[in-house]
Amino acid sequence: MRESMLSELRGKIGEAYRVTLPSLFTSQIFGLFGGTFLGKYFETVRLRFPGLLVVLPGIMGLRGNVFGSMASRFSTMLYLGELEPSLGDRRILKEIVLRMVLSLIPVFLLWAIGVLTGIKKNAFDVLLIVITSTILVSFILGYFTSFVTIFAFRRGTDPDSVAAPLVASMGDFLTVPSLVLFILLIERSPWAFKAFNYVTIAFFLFVTALSRVRLEEFSELRQVFVTITALALLSTVSGSILARFSGIIQASVILSFIYPSLLSSFGNYGSIIAAKTSTKLHLGEIESFLCPKAFTDVIALFTTAPVIGLTKILIGGALMTLITGNPIPRSAYLVVLTYPFMVLFIMLYSYTLSYFLFQRSIDPDHVAIPLISNNSDIFGTIYVVLMARLMVGA
């Protein structure tokens, strides 16, 4: 029995390095690209547009959840023959418009919460930034999601196995740079920014009319809307923490660069464990909470965490040095030492949540993954604040 478990664990470790690690590393590169924009302009955002810090974690998670569910829906429609494997199918534009609207409402609520909690500086400009960014990024991400799903299906690959992580990574890749670019546009030409907003809103109305979306089609997505809105509102916890401790995070420098990548990787590790646990539970392979077989995936993925943590500091630090001229501080290696154990905590939390949801007849596939992604943002933001305090001696 022991030899069998060790053999299975060796196989899982091999799979983790062969299959999972490359996807985690790719996601990390996307996150670090967005983090470069955040790190370079962190002070500008913190001092002039603090409301963006409140909505940032929510927007990042929102886009992954909204378009991840769209990828899953398209995959099902393709297998059922309800969707042509072509970007020209009218249902694609219709679904993208639906997701754009679904994204705009939670974004507005996030902004309103920020204002109600006292973050009113340049509040109207922040609202225009998040609305315009949501429309444009949603349109780009919608067609990217459609392309990835259809391309995988036409190649004979299961879209469910590749679309969700790629969509989440692209969401991270687009979110922060788009917000920063609009900030720069405001500073250089406020009139050009307002004109661009008017054009973007007109574009949104045009594609909405072109898609011929009907009111009853919105009601079909009511459950998705309720879920993503609730999670977006919950993300104000991490957004409020980020805004409150933004000064100390900026003082650490490197953490402002790797913040998006840290949150993304915690969510990825948690989601992978939730998905694997859900599959094992449905197949009856987990007989009890402390079933040894259930933890082989956790142990296998834990072995990849030091690699991700070290490369996160090395690559993020190199980008920071290139942008700011500051060398990687020695204290940054606190992240290298503690990151694997934070990943372990997230994975054990994900396993526990998935297990007990299943015991209560709630399918983890529908609830656990988006909830874990959201909770990982909260845990990750708290982790970043703690690391910042240790690094700057506050």
TrEMBL record:
Subcellular localization: Membrane
Keyword Transmembrane helix: yes
Keyword terms of this UniProt record: Ion transport, Magnesium, Membrane, Transmembrane, Transmembrane helix, Transport
Bilayer topology: Multi-pass membrane protein
Transmembrane segments: 20-39, 51-76, 96-119, 126-153, 165-186, 195-213, 225-245, 257-278, 298-320, 332-351, 371-392
Family named by the database record: Belongs to the SLC41A transporter family.
Protein's name in the database: Divalent cation transporter, MgtE-like protein
Organism: Thermococcus gammatolerans (strain DSM 15229 / JCM 11827 / EJ3)
